[in-house]
Amino acid sequence: MRVNERTAETTRKTQELTAEVTRRKKAQAAVQETEEKYRTLFDSSSHAIAITTLDGRIVDVNQDYQDMVGYTLKELEGTNFQELTPKKWHKLEAAAMKDFMSEGYGTFEKEYIRKDGTIFPVSLSAWLIRDRQGNPAGIGAFVKDITERKKAGSAVREADQKYRTLFDSNSHGIAITTLDGEIVDANQDYQDMVGYTLKELEGTNVRKLTPKKWHKLEAAATKHLMSEGYGSFEKEYIRKDGTIFPVSLSAWLIRDGQGNPAGIGAFVKDITERKQAEERKHTFKEVEAMNTKTETFVYTSERLSPLYTHTALFSP
Q1: Which of 28, 88, 159, 172 has the fewest Cβ atoms within 10 angstroms?
Q2: Mean pLDDT (the chain, rounded)
Q3: Where are the alpha helices (DSSP H) in the chain?
Q4: Of the ranges 1-5, 126-130, 175-179, 255-259, which one carries the lowest mean pLDDT score?
Q5: Which domains does the chain have, with CATH numbers?
């Protein structure tokens, strides 16, 4: 009887192991089928990326993911992501995964446990990996450590009364970001100015709203802000519709209850009209200089664009 029980138990474990190996191989095969696209994304992304089986066992992760959780790829392979997740998040994650399986993608926030035992908040943007026949074969996820964003949000809440009065009553756009530039909050004027809703802006880095030619100047301005506690500069923004417009920023450092830097606040003003006025003034001065130098009258439109030149003085 005992021999039969042991045989049955061995058979059951063998079947479970075979099923698990099959699931992992299926996920790996699906990844390999799109290897070129997958590997480029995997190696070039600035976010941590993980690939799992449909039941959450890790198949592959990039270096950013390994650095974030403190485990090597060898240690992570075969580990279920629930083992990296505090128990209080398991129900929420199960519900999120149920929605994800029906929609094919999903985004949610939870916490992770590092190898050293520390717990930190993350945001996940997951997608369903399919095989050549279009069947679900695995799960891919961008995972981002959002500790700085949460820290900035916490610092803002600590001074909520003062902050909220300023936020809601000001006629300028106001944005609150983490120390590395991820948007935590923005008032309605800011949302109207850039064309995005607060939901769309949360977690977005301000660099994504800024033309690339301004990135170096902004980095220098932020460095100055970190040392002085405040700063002002001008740059350009990119609206949701793609239009580019000039803005001025007056920024200040937000500190937590212990006085440590926790985030950045900024008044942001659209200075399109001011820049247009400066351009008209500059054009007018150029026209004056031309008139003085050539003794030729240059007639202009309201925008001071040259229309024609009176050349009678030079006629024979």
Answers
A1: 88
A2: 80
A3: 2-33, 35-44, 63-69, 73-76, 90-103, 147-158, 160-169, 188-194, 198-201, 215-228, 272-294
A4: 1-5
A5: 2-145 (3.30.450.20), 149-270 (3.30.450.20), 274-314 (no CATH)
